[in-house]
Amino acid sequence: MKFAKLYKIITAGILAMSSPALAEPTEVVVRVISQDAKFVGDQMGGARVVLRDAETGEVLADGITTGGTGNTKQIMDSTGRSPMLATPDAAAFTTQLDLSQPTLITAEVVGPLAQMQASIRVTSQRWIVPGQPVTSGDGWVVELPGLAVNIIAPQPNTHSAKGSRTIEVMSSTMLMCGCPITSGGLWDAKDYEVEVAAYQAGRKIASGKLDFVEAPGRFGGDLTLPEKGAYELFVSARNSRTGNTGVDRTSVIVP
């Protein structure tokens, strides 16, 4: 009898050790915030968030941030080392991870999805412990650097007028959350330097400044190219106070 009882105890212990650990549902909220500005959500098509096990590379969750850009005053007037930025309407991706042990998670963020020419890929890592939701404060916040620059003119492979080497350049620039650049506004046009540069075979051939034309974020000007040929054009915008920068590119042909 004693032997049978001991056998059962040992067998139960072996089975317990061989059984897979029970996963514990853990809620995670990820928010993506534009450098110098607000949250990236519906206005800009959101940002894609992929959560992976950092050790194995396994995808644990995949989705898009949805919602609004958040409360302007609460975000832009915030002070302190870890201010509370998010309101309930602020864009987020919410998911539930089934974790059986503390896991180092990699968040891969790509956005804004509605301005793919401006999209930036950013990764961030943090430990997540089963049963300890990542929902406190603003959740897991990932900052998205850059500016959404979009060249309006010239369109790709545009030919300049025959006999003319001067082309008109027009671009639109906004924050990655879609926040507008205006004269005297919260994102003041005077803080942004916008330039067009023409390249051939990786060498800068000509460049010029683009001036603020109208709100929101419209910059334009002329660029004179030195000779006939095909050129790659880069339009870059930079916040002179923070260094935040965005670029778009196209091509033009001088016949």
Write the layout of secondary structure elements.
Blueprint: H1 2-18, E1 24-34, E2 48-53, E3 59-64, H2 72-76, E4 93-99, E5 103-111, E6 120-128, E7 140-144, E8 147-153, E9 158-159, E10 166-175, E11 192-200, E12 203-214, E13 218-224, E14 229-239, E15 245-254
CATH class of the largest domain: Mainly Beta
User: What is the averaged pLDDT score?
Assistant: 92
Q: How far from one another are the termini?
A: 100 Å
Q: CATH H level of the largest domain: which superfamily?
A: Immunoglobulins
Helix proportion: under 10%
Q: What is the CATH topology of the largest domain?
A: Immunoglobulin-like
- The percentage of residues in β strands lies in over 45%
Q: What is the correct CATH architecture of the largest domain? A: Sandwich
Count of domains: 2
Key features?
mainly beta; 255 residues; Immunoglobulin-like; elongated; 2 helices
